[in-house]
From TrEMBL, chains A, B, C, D:
Keywords: Carbohydrate metabolism, Cobalt, Glycosidase, Hydrolase, Iron, Manganese, Metal-binding, NAD, Nickel. It comes from Velocimicrobium porci. This is 6-phospho-beta-glucosidase. Residues 198-414 form the Glycosyl hydrolase family 4 C-terminal domain. Its cofactor is NAD(+). Homotetramer. The keyword Cell inner membrane does not apply.
């Protein structure tokens, strides 16, 4: 890194990229990115070129010596990289539309981490990420892989359980969003509110909130519930439930605690051709139209509606802390190991299982803080998702249809053997091209 | 016990009692029951007298010196007892009908151990069983309590976590039924087929089957699935799923893996006024008519259709093994502790959590055999039920409505916050008389 | 307890009793002890009468209606008791002298909890305590047993692993002494200094010290070490070691971390006939001479040199908190279970293993506070002592000489197979009368 | 590996190398080693040349196309390697002599894995192995590292806890020696006797012995003890102890269970200048004289007395099984993880702690078989050694003298704070040149 940092972004043609570029520009003084390599596949070449054009205009306007490279040859880019980020989407948004519509058409809820859709996204993605890890071991063994491709938990389990590669950190924008919302609720700035997070990806809890040295967790839980009750539209948490739970759930928890309510809503949207993936696609199409504008040289406002807001900024922040050995706290996905003194961060999980938690970030990566034991009341659900992540990643690697069925059957959103079998067959057929391991 | 064994059966007016009496008569040579005390409450006096009449005729016919006592004063009966069995039903079958109908009317599946119904049965029952334990500590501190009142798992957690009473063993007829079915499938006698069971009550797995010293588990799993496939009526297991699972599930597992299928069936029966509790009530009414017959002096055939077949016989067998220090293997509910060498029977659970497992039975009670680790694929579901049992038993003791809501919300059959709140209110109102802890 | 509290003290003829009596007198307003039964065996009758005489004079002077009863019939005393304390010593101090001298004569260090001596004290004591528990289940099932007979850890494991009796709490004066020493060191009153303790009996650590809401653990550790360094006489802790350890060890830890130093000192004393037991015997003889004085009607000053200072006062304080449901924090021995939310107090031990820790005391007994994970650096030693306690209690119950040898061999102070065999034979022979289980 | 396998042996000038070469020659048909690179440092150049000369004569005689390369430039050798073996000794045998003599001169027992000597060997070695791992990540990311440099357990913990490198397997010849001895005892060939091993390096137990499908563990334990009793010379196991232990200890266990006996013997040898390292040095000097003989073209018989017999052969066998994806069982050191179904091999250890156990060897490395729970009686000792390995490896990486003191203090062979401090200072001084991390 003597002559500046080399970053490789796989899935570089993604609509997220301008936020990433903005993040690197903002931090150039402390994190001098000399080369940013945007890698994509042939099918994504057009988008890649559009995004790279915007990126170059942004850099030029900023007046900094950051080179933007594009390539379809991943290995060319990886050679000597310092950090690699993965924001790829195997099969693109049209695959995600199938992940959501096919299960819903049989009454099963889900998205790209939940339910049947999450399993298929995982099975398409894990073999690709494993290949990237292998290339990195060979071409840039010192580099860190920052993965923000979903399902982050299942992808991380796939790497940890099925490879020897350990320089990987998973990233999600849910905790940062909760942190912001809690600060707003308490009328404070984010940096004044210390929030401890612990759980799994898309199943993370805020376990403790401290302001001015005082533990205000109970107060926050109460306000959180009251606020949602006032918000008459939408699906809100019951205050009694939150109080008894004793920790703050994230938005994705509603899929499991309010399945019926969410399913009803999703069925409405299905009819109107507005499953989440379709909504995202619409926004993306608009974004690329905007990106094309040769006069645009900054991240457009609309990107914040895309759903992944803060995602790329969180990635830049993480890279900056590793590069500068900052030792600050960020919420990421890593294994449940602290050190030889206090070896587990969350007592409910095994030490080699992947958790999403508040971590100290240094040049050696991420180390979780001590969280203790999550309440018995949440233990069942988090173990169920952990089982699903593990069995799902096993199926992704083995290509064994029986294991894929097992993963579906143990998912708490499926709840029907008959539907599981039908949906498995339909999704395997729909994603045939991206699941070669099942068609050997 | 010098002058013969004294047994106390609480809920003695139950239709199960004749099987229990038959069991003691059969075993009189090795297990000389001198006094059998049938205890019930005032509301059950008529049934108690009918059952006692039949019991006395059975004993007389057998020509053995076993005294049948009846009383409405539990403490009178407990004085100096050697074994106590609990087959009581707080609120009777009419309470169970509410447990099933009210949730179903809001689309929630359940029975007396599953879902919302199981929670309410537990909350009505646990305080009563705790009182019985307190009386036993005072009046017959050496006696063993054999509990077959459902929900057995939640009741056992209530005793283990909230009292210091340890002389309790929980009993269920599901494992003995599976054992018999496996033997039939393999064309063998039960005693030729060694089956190891491990899991939770109504969530037990056959983890290993050995015949003539050979491990035939895989073969049994295959046959089990094939057989259910041939059986075109009813809800059957998918062979691929069972093979990937690697252990044999019990019938109650279908509630969780085939929720949709079961719910559809239950909704049909709801309309026809044939929820399980109503069917059981019908059989029971017939049974009591038959029991009244002054010429009847044996257990009538119809009792086998009651659903609890083998239950009472299993209880007699368990008492016999404790009394005679037999050291044989029976499947019961007890804590997950073996001994200081191999301290946990099932690695997935804590050492003080209650499991249902193959146990060695001696004069010191039940000690589980070493089961090892249940597959990761089932870990999520069993932890979810264990969380529910524990939080449910906490709510039963505290009488805190928030904790009861929490228990409902974490149950995998409820899946809706809105429904949870409605069903909680309706069931609390319906069972007001039997839940004084919630109306202080 | 309507008409005042009934206390039974087994081993009532002990020299500790006057402190116990003083404790009850002091607390009479909140803890109205109506009857104090001092129970002993025939061989201890003379001492029992001396102690009872003094006790009666103390009560008379205090002018309170507390009856002092003496009896040699334990069962007579236990009938209807509210609290039972055990301060018995099977074989008396002369047995303890053998426990110390025989191993030392072969170069093995130990006392009544450590090494070979601790094992034999445990094997003599556990069967007696088990008998007391059985009597209590029958005669006073609601009473609590407060055990301060050593080895407290092994005795507790004996009860927890080999009986169903759970109303037992173990007590030791080491933590209260450390608490006092820490307060002195910081120039504060004890009640201003909050110290969290966790570990095993005679192997407890102060894990956290808080003053005025500030965590001062590191400062205390530094001062503790500096102070001991200044104290040129005696065996002192190395500051670097304490800093790296990160928790404050108790005095008994020196047996294991400074075996060589302690052994050298003990060998000197052996020659001078001043092993600890002999020193204690000398003090005791003097104490009984003083107790006889018909004009004495208070606890004499000399008792504080006896070694068990604060022991009896701690017992009174514990009984008072249970009786009045105080919910205060005291350090006692109990199982490692908190509640269903945070189920283990110390992560290093199993949930049903006995720990010594800061506990909340209520009418339902003692529940440990959450300690978290003790440092990896101490895990080896605490597991070794836990293994020794468990195997030792197994041997005490089974009377199997092979298991007793195993317990000796795994004790970290024995370190020689040859010596283990010799010492085992010599101690079995020396204590033959008190170890009937080994001579069946 | 298309054109044959490339092996790199670091510490190639070791006297072990001819056994390694013989092993590769024997297996050439299945494991076609094209290049064997012997790497050493300048100080070892003479030995390296002698060994390489012999190796070339051996290969020539065998008539196979295996190239023997020598180099002092490790990175040159590593480029593109398939397997790397480490048999280096930082500081050579003269450092080992200090490791043994200095502690012994203060009455502390030890060798290169035990006690103070083991700690210093570890602290000299771990930074070097970490550097090798870093080079491998860069130069041969697909290669496996087979480490047989002691202390294997501490070195492995150093890599697992302080790096992200996972392609490492630790090797020891103790299990293979025990396997052979058990087979001899039972008058069988090794391949007829199935022995399951579990524990830590130099602290491994044979937990199960099966012959012709029958579990003969108890019989083997009995014979093992009887045999050692007959063998009047030397230090032998007490049969009662082995029976109560229930598993077969390895020879290194005697250091802990018979410390006194071993220490006496070692003190004798110390006086005669025959500590183990000195004996080894004598044999080595003779070996190199023999190796020089230009007519010698095979491994001389004397090498078998060297102490590491079977070590190199075990390494060849391990490499062969990985290369050919054999799936056979070998005993190696790896992390305690099996798979998502049965995730821990030995329940006593955490899933990411390094164990020595029977493992299945495939192209993906080593996966332990399911061992279950080691007896409570051995839990204390194995946890103590595991703590020592972990704290020792922490000190090796941090270069913090306080942590090194902590490691010494918790080692069961040190037992004296005073001695610990003296020995620490003397050994730091003695090994100054090889411990730069402590002298920054």
């Amino acid at each position: 890194m003597k002559n500046g940092v080399k970053i490789v972004t796989i899935g570089g043609g993604s609509s997220y990229t301008p936020e990433l570029v903005e993040g690197f520009i903002k931090r150039f003084d402390s994190l001098p990115v000399k080369e940013l390599w945007l890698v994509d596949i042939l099918a994504g070449k057009e988008k890649l070129d559009i995004v790279a054009g915007l990126a170059r205009r942004m850099v030029k306007k900023a007046g900094i010596p950051m080179e933007i490279h594009t390539t379809l040859d991943r290995r060319e880019a990886l050679e000597g990289a310092d950090f690699v980020t993965t924001q790829l989407r195997v099969g693109g948004l049209s695959a995600r539309i199938k992940d959501e519509r096919i299960p819903l058409s049989h009454g099963i809820l889900g998205q790209e981490t939940n339910g049947a859709g999450g399993l298929f996204k995982g099975m398409r993605t894990i073999p690709v990420i494993i290949d990237i890890c292998k290339d990195m071991e060979e071409l840039c063994p010192k580099a860190w892989l920052i993965n923000f491709t979903n399902p982050v938990g299942m992808v991380m389990e796939g790497i940890v359980k099925h490879t020897n590669f350990r320089k990987i950190i998973g990233l999600c924008n849910v905790p940062i969003g909760m942190h912001k919302a809690i600060a707003d609720l308490m009328d404070r700035k984010m940096e004044e509110v210390e929030v401890t997070f612990g759980g799994l990806n898309h199943m993370v809890f805020a376990t403790k909130v401290v302001i001015d040295g005082v533990d205000v967790t109970k107060e926050v839980i109460k306000k959180w519930a009251d606020q949602t009750v006032k918000n008459i539209k939408g699906i809100v948490w019951e205050p009694d439930f939150l109080e008894a739970l004793g920790v703050l759930p994230c938005s994705y928890h509603r899929y499991y605690y309010m399945t019926k309510e969410y399913l009803a809503e999703a069925m409405e949207k299905l009819k109107e051709h507005k499953v989440r993936a379709e909504f995202v696609k619409e926004v993306e199409d608009k974004l690329f139209e905007i990106y094309k504008d040769p006069n645009l040289c900054e991240k457009p406002k609309l990107l914040e509606e895309r759903g992944g807001a803060y995602y790329s900024d969180a990635a830049c922040s993480l890279i900056d802390s590793i590069y500068n050995d900052r030792g600050d706290i960020q919420v990421v996905n890593t294994v449940n190991y602290i050190n030889s003194d206090n070896h587990k961060a969350i007592q409910n999980f095994e030490v080699n299982e992947v958790i999403e938690a508040s971590c100290k970030i240094t040049k050696d990566g991420a180390v979780p803080v001590e969280i203790g034991e999550l309440p018995k009341a949440v233990n069942g659900l988090i173990q169920q998702i952990k089982s699903f992540e593990i069995i799902g990643s096993d199926a992704a690697v083995s290509g064994d249809k029986k294991e894929a069925l097992l993963a579906l059957m143990i998912n708490p959103l499926v709840m029907s053997q008959e539907t599981a079998k039908i949906v498995l067959d339909e999704l395997l057929e729909a994603h045939k091209d991206y699941l070669p391991q099942f068609f050997k």
